[in-house]
Amino acid sequence: MPFFIPYDTKVNDINEIITPELDEILGEAIPAEFREKLDTRSFFDESDPNRAHLPEFNGCHIFGSIPVNRVSGELQITAKSLGYVASRKAPLEELKFNHVINEFSFGDFYPYIDNPLDNTAQFNQDEPLTTYVYYTSVVPTLFKKLGAEVDTNQYSVNDYRYLYKDVAAKGDKMPGIFFKYNFEPLSIVVSDVRLSFIQFLVRLVAICSFLVYCASWIFTLLDMALITIMGPKWSLRYQPDDKTKGILDR
What we know:
The chain is an alpha/beta fold. It has helices at about 20-30, 165, 195-230; strands at about 10, 75, 100, 120, 130-145, 150-165, 175-185, 190. Helix content is about 20%, strand content about 25%. A hairpin with a 2-residue loop joins strand 5 and strand 6. The N and C termini lie far apart (about 105 Å). It is found in: Endoplasmic reticulum membrane; Endoplasmic reticulum-Golgi intermediate compartment membrane; Golgi apparatus membrane.
């Protein structure tokens, strides 16, 4: 298939790394397995001489899943004889490692959960033999709410690019796309915990007490302001018909 960058794809950038909300995960955790299909009719137009024939399908479309252990590893996408012993050598002038990542995740495939590398692209027209390296750090994350559980794997990523002309002499990096992954020795559990009735009662009493305390201070400050500005008769505590007297008033 021809190489193209879909609309609304981040070019030479990655998505923001965030932890989804619990309700968002439970609402979008729908397992699936699919791949995008290219409609070739959009490239064909008999009235246009430049589009009267279908383009040459010279791009690669890689999709699927690979079982890996929870240890450090690497996925390499490169050409023959680049770093490997092969009987045939790929012509360097025909190699281009510009690429689009539609979806990249660890664990079960949930198409509605966004990942840092989803819908991203790397494109370098001047240097097609660029080495692209992604360093991912994977953290197993379990979401739990009302008996429902969603087992996912969040990951952070750092991406680097190296030009072939700069690293060819060293021989430590070959042109291609490399995904290096490392599973962290910890896991995150995000759960929804309900309060007991006693805890709810204690918190309710504490909130009501705080509201009463704030109201008393507001009443006192308002009373002091009225006395200062308009005199004692405007006090909220003023009682003109009060006949009771204290000991010092007798």
